[in-house]
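Budget justification aside, the reviewers requested a transparent look at the raw inputs and outputs of the sequence design task funded under Objective 1. We therefore reproduce one unedited record. The lines immediately below are the structure tokens for a 290-residue chain.
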């Protein structure tokens, strides 16, 4: 199992046995419920403060160790999100995309290869990750601008004009941010989105296998854990994510659990995965009229 809880493996869309009918939420086994119930000890306040202080350093060290070899390129994004397909109607129309938390470019470079009518703003918390993006042979400043940014603090408008982005992506990014700072991150994205613009979201869902693998002593709070390398991961319920985006000014278009089995033939593993795949819209001006 990788540091992020993602297996180098094959996903099956068949679902898995212990599945709830309550809005698609996964139902736990008795053993899993007992494990979560008994995991009550939280990491000390001192250590939690240090993890927050060292968050950027820990992600920079992650990319120092793994360089560009850890994640696979995400060629699935255009299949899952119609908004990323090359479907602009008028010739010469460019889609302006913000990839928030771009890592080393596993999402942006497949998009740049597939679509000539796209411009991508790409930002990441880790300066090292941004440098890897800029060193990629496909990186071209005519079609992409990569920059370091702390979504919880920095103003995206330093690099992006207000209300100029058509689509923003948050793919396995928000879960790495402290829950107290998630709303501020979303509000920062809200400012650069055009009215009617959309955020495409995919991240860890409640009761994902990665959540249940954490041992006692790694819990930071409700559904929030720290990995061995100091990076952190939050696991979202559908209701929590709805509330978070709505408080930041967004409207919910789609917010659904995605239930999968991940198969790792090499290790003989078949485990239940839970993700949230969602779309949130910035209201257009007409929607504010009474």
């Amino acid at each position: 199992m990788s540091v992020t809880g993602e297996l180098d493996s094959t996903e099956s869309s068949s679902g898995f046995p212990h599945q709830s009918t309550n809005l698609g939420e996964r139902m736990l086994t008795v053993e899993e419920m007992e494990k979560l119930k008994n995991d009550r000890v939280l990491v000390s306040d001192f250590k939690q403060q240090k993890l927050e202080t060292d968050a950027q350093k820990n992600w920079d060290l992650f990319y120092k160790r793994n360089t560009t070899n850890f994640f696979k390129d995400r060629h699935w994004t255009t299949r899952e999100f119609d908004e990323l397909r090359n479907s602009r109607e008028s010739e010469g129309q460019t889609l302006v995309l913000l990839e928030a938390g771009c890592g080393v470019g596993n999402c942006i470079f497949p998009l740049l290869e597939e679509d000539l009518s796209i411009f991508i703003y790409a930002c990441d918390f880790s300066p090292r990750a941004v440098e890897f993006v800029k060193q990629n042979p496909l990186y071209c400043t005519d079609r992409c601008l990569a920059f370091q940014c702390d979504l919880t603090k920095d103003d995206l408008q330093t690099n992006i004009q207000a209300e100029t982005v058509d689509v923003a992506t948050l793919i396995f990014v928000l879960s790495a941010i402290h829950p107290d700072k998630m709303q501020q991150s979303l509000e920062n994205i809200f400012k650069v989105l055009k009215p009617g613009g959309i955020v495409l979201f995919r991240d860890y869902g409640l009761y994902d296998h990665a959540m249940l693998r954490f041992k006692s002593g790694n819990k930071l709070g409700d559904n929030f854990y720290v990995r061995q390398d100091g990076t952190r991961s939050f696991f979202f319920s559908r209701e929590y994510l709805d509330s978070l985006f709505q408080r930041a000014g967004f409207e919910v278009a789609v917010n659904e659990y995605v239930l999968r089995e991940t198969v790792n033939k090499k290790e003989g593993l078949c485990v239940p995965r839970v993700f949230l795949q969602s779309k949130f819209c910035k209201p257009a001006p007409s929607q504010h009229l009474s």
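Confidence is low (pLDDT under 50) at residues 1-22. The chain has one domain: 44-258+276-284. Computational costs for records of this kind are itemized in the attached budget.
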